[in-house]
């Protein structure tokens, strides 16, 4: 019984969105579950996927808050 946790920053992937959409989450769940089936032969009904959205101010990268790191690196 695999349990997969996906952590992402809470922000939109498209203009006007402020979080990952329900459709994007469904695609992540389907894709990860299928990968475990294909690689490890784990049945879809035995795979659990948890998606955690973390506020950007609670996410650090390279010793900096994520927004500052991105600014310095020229990333979104």
Automatic annotation (TrEMBL):
Keyword Isomerase appears in the UniProt entry: yes
Keyword presence, Isomerase: yes
Keyword annotations: Isomerase
Organism per entry: Paraburkholderia terricola
NCBIfam families on file: taut
Coiled coil feature spans: none
Record GO terms (molecular function): isomerase activity
Domain 4-oxalocrotonate tautomerase-like: 2-66
Active site: 2 (proton acceptor)
Protein's recorded name: Tautomerase
Membership in a protein family: Belongs to the 4-oxalocrotonate tautomerase family.
Entry's EC annotation: 5.3.2.-
């Amino acid at each position: 019984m695999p349990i997969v946790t996906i952590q992402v920053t809470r922000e939109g992937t498209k203009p006007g969105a402020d979080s990952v959409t329900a459709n994007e989450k469904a695609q992540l769940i389907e894709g990860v579950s299928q990968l475990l089936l294909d690689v490890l032969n784990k049945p879809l009904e035995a795979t659990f996927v948890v998606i955690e959205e973390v506020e950007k101010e609670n996410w650090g990268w390279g010793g900096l808050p994520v927004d500052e790191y991105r600014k310095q690196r020229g990333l979104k």
